[in-house]
Amino acid sequence: MKTRNIISLFAAISSIMATVSVVSCSKDVPVGDPVEITGGYVLPQSGASDEDNARIMEIYEKWSSYVLYDVDSVDVYWKQISGNASSGGMVYIFKEGDPKYVGDMLDYLDEIWWHYFPDEFLQKGGIPFRVYLVEEYYSYRDWGGGQTSAPQYMDYQINDNSIMLSGMSQVASYDADTKRAKKVALLSDLFTNWISKSIIGTPSEFYNVSDYNTEPEMTTDDGYSYYYTDEQLKALRNRGFIPKYNSYGYSVYDEIYMAYSGGTSSWTYNDPRSNDFNYYISQIFHATEEQVADFLQYETVKTKWNIILDYYKDNYGIDLRAMATE
After folding, report:
1. Which has the higher per-residue pLDDT, 270 or 97?
2. Of 2, 146, 154, 284, whose CB has the highest number of CB atoms within 10 Å?
3. pTM, full prediction
4. Is residue 105 part of a domain?
5. 47 and 155: one domain?
6. Interatomic CA distance for residues 204 and 308, integer angstroms
7. Taking a C-beta distance cutoff of 8 angstroms, is the pair 56, 43 a contact?
């Protein structure tokens, strides 16, 4: 397998201003026949089995997305910039995968991603324009002179019109827990990306349920440390507020409202409306059925929870909780 630098980002900082330059150059060049695609791509690529290439062609025909596994050939060319800065430039590296694992990767992506969505949604942006399948993908910081940070390995990276997915030789061996964790992480980030690109919307009625003007109450014994009493936490839930999901367990700092010493609070410098929706989405994707039952005993929480689930089912045919629980 071959290793290639994908992107290098270096920041030049002066006493007057900081200028960050990101330069990536891609050149789309036809690499074969028989199907020529607008933008310079040709499918199928060479190396995978006829069966796997046929599946890639079907994906293109159904969803207008190009699945590419011969990533370091002339169909995608990234130009590296040399240099360094005190902050360290970001360098992204991928390692090409063995085409014999293309089928495993397609099975994996269908299981954790594609089968949850209707064809119409996938065709309209539910899958990025280009899907790169690779063996490894990681980044590090380069401070020059051979000084670099430790590599940070990534399962995926979502870009403006593409996604890089790693682990071609590994995905078939993932156990159920590993697969679910990777699925939830990927779909959560894709969901955020879809909203940012207006591929999907958000339910306006969600924001009409709770009072975002009146700050909740917290308690302090020393003027510095704040906590919720049982009654205050119950009042917060009755208003329809739940905490952001935390894989390490409950923390008062993950609540929609947090008071600090000096009279300030998270309510004053964060947007409680935006955070409220994001916290619900984090729980919808991650919470266990037991945690969900604990939240839904509060009618206002149940109302907002169901507004979100119904909105995405009715408008996009997406069952968000199925992604979390299956």
Report:
1. 97
2. 284
3. 0.82
4. yes
5. yes
6. 10
7. yes
CA gap 176, 173 in Å, rounded: 10
DSSP 123: I
pLDDT, greater one: 232 or 10: 232
Residues 158 and 209 grouped into a single domain? no
* Helix (H), strand (E) at residue 8: strand 3-13
Residue 198 burial by CB count (10 A; 0-12/13-18/19+): exposed, middle or buried? exposed
Residues 159, 27, single domain; the answer is yes
Alpha-carbon separation of residue 254 from 186, 197, 233, 249, 278 (angstroms): 22, 26, 13, 10, 12
- How far is C-alpha 67 from the chain's CA centre? 19
DSSP secondary structure letters along 62-113? HH--EEES-TTSTTS---------TT-EEEEEEEPPPGGGHHHHHHHHHHHT
Q: Mean pLDDT, the chain, as a whole number? A: 84
How would residue 233 be classed by pLDDT, with cut points 50, 70 and 90? very high
Q: Which of 117, 93, 99, 3 is nearest to 56 (CA)?
A: 99
Q: Which residues contact 194 (CB under 8 A, 6 or more apart)?
A: 125, 126, 200
Q: Where are the alpha helices (DSSP H) in 197-325?
A: 230-238, 266-269, 272-286, 289-296, 299-316, 320-325
DSSP conformational letter for 30 = -
Q: Which residue has the higher pLDDT, 9 or 133?
A: 133
Could you tell me the residue range of the domain that residue 257 belongs to? 204-325
Distances (CA, A) of 70 to 46, 74, 100, 157, 296: 8, 9, 12, 17, 48
SS3 label, residue 237: helix
